[in-house]
Amino acid sequence: MILGPSMPSTGTVGDWLDAQASSDDVAIVFPETREEVTWTTLHNEASEHSGGRLDHSHLV
């Protein structure tokens, strides 16, 4: 997924997660528990739940 302030995003959610997966930065912090989820973990969980496919283009 390509994001920019002057143009609409392109690509799929799967594309975006694939691109972010190389980073072990924090993707989400749950404020109630302060639990942190990294981009790698988010990617791996999404991949597992999608049967190994992160192509969500049919949902757009």
How would you describe this structure in keywords?
single chain, 60 residues, alpha+beta, 2 helices, 32% helix, disordered C terminus
Helix content: 25-40%
Radius of gyration: 13 Å
**What's the helix-strand series?**
EEHEEH
- Side by side, the strands of the main sheet go 1-2
Approximate strand percentage? 25-35%
DSSP summary: helix tally = 2
What is the oligomer described by this structure?
single chain
Total beta strands: 4
Largest sheet: 2 strands, antiparallel
Mean pLDDT over the residues: 77
Compact overview of the structure:
By secondary structure, the protein is α+β, with helices and mostly antiparallel strands.
Topology readout:
Elements: E1 2-4, E2 7-10, H1 13-20, E3 26-30, E4 35-38, H2 39-49
Antiparallel strand pairs: 1-2, 3-4
Helix pairs in contact: 1-2
Note down, in words, how this protein is organized.
There is one protein chain. With 60 residues, the chain is an alpha+beta fold. It has a domain at 21-51. The chain is 32% helix and 27% strand. It has two helices and four strands. The strands form two sheets. Strands 1-2 form a two-stranded antiparallel ribbon. Strands 3-4 form a two-stranded antiparallel sheet. A hairpin with a 2-residue loop joins strand 1 (2-4) and strand 2 (7-10). Helix 1 packs across helix 2. The longest helix is centred in the C-terminal third of the chain and has 11 residues, at 39-49. The radius of gyration is 13 Å and the shape is globular. The two termini are 13 Å apart. The relative contact order is 0.22.
